[in-house]
Amino acid sequence: MDDDPLFAIDPAGTDIHDEAARLRAHGPITRVLLPGGVAAWAVTGYHAARQVLADERFARNARQHWPAYVDGTIGPDFPLIAWARMDNMSTADGEPHARQRRLVAGAFSPQRIAVLRPRVERVVRRALDELAGHAAERPGEPVDLKVGYAHRVASRVIGELLGVPEGDPDGILDRAGYIESTPQKAAAEYALLRSKIEALVAAKRRQPGEDLISDLIAAQPSGCPVTGTGAGSDAELVGLAQLMLNTGAEPARNLITNTVLALLTRPGQRALAASGEVEWDDVVEETLRTDASVAYLPFRFATEDVTIAGVTISRGDPVLVGYAATGRDPELHGAAAGEFDARRADKRHVAFGHGVHRCVGPALTRMEVRIAVEALFTRFPGLRLAVEPKELTGQGTFVMNGRLALPVHL
Prior knowledge:
The chain is of the alpha+beta class. Helices cover 48% and strands 9% of the residues. The protein contains 16 helices and eleven strands. The strands form three sheets. It has a six-stranded mixed sheet. It has a three-stranded antiparallel sheet with strand order 5-11-10. A two-stranded antiparallel sheet has the order 7-8. A hairpin with a 2-residue loop joins strand 7 and strand 8.
């Protein structure tokens, strides 16, 4: 960064945690330069992040609160334009957001999660059997746990929640959550996935089941139009389903991968979990603190000048909250904040957000990841990395915090 007040964010997210540490050295809130040359603020301090996330003066809707986007200064070639264009519960504010959140909240109630548990366990068993089959067919060859296990578990679990048919004949789950490299590819993929979800909604309207999409259809007002953007419209319903699919797949996929990697590179911690000296839930929670699935989730916008941690963020400025950075904040967790220790008493983090826009499904994510990781190490006690840890690469984005692949020997 030197004397330049604008810290250029690495668009490829080559080293999420090293970059966060360098940002944090300049304070909990730092001025940064996003891909495309757009100035913004990055929040990497835990306490500052909670303040921003809880402050209603930071809005999510770019179409209303980002002047540079509204007046066309931010053009269609902006690498993160898809995040500004997004129109769903995650980018709604006030009552529209609260109403949509109420619609989906029931799907993540303790009762619904308990009902889902045996289905999650079935998904995990099937994925483990597929891994074992691969090992039998290709003895000695490594397998990619990211694609061959974490993706299958995460996508199938969210598919169970939404009511995606067995076998996923339309290929919906294979497209869940992946982030494309260019605005053009992102727009095309978004449109393709949306068309498939529209077809799924239409099928559920004809033949409802015990799933979230059917519940949303049942909750629509009588005589609700099948198109449009009003309360309960199919356009809104499709947007909610697409949001649940993407946010339910990619973060869980990364959390499974990150948790497995944490244990594969720390034999002592792995032994503690395997012996029962620490709970698997604690292993997952410590991964959420040290290696959260989401690095930065664009965007928030100041609706007026706001001062946080001694820094004034001007009206209209875009803000990124560093979800993966805040759990490693030394002001909260001390000098050893970056070290993984499942025995740590204080595991506070904001990996699932905070405030009114916090994630609706942390209970489901925690449950499926805990089941998936424990079952994996139980089924394959000889599991080991097939490459050196330094050979692992990131996903090629600074938005998510995950590995492109996790090659292992079973």
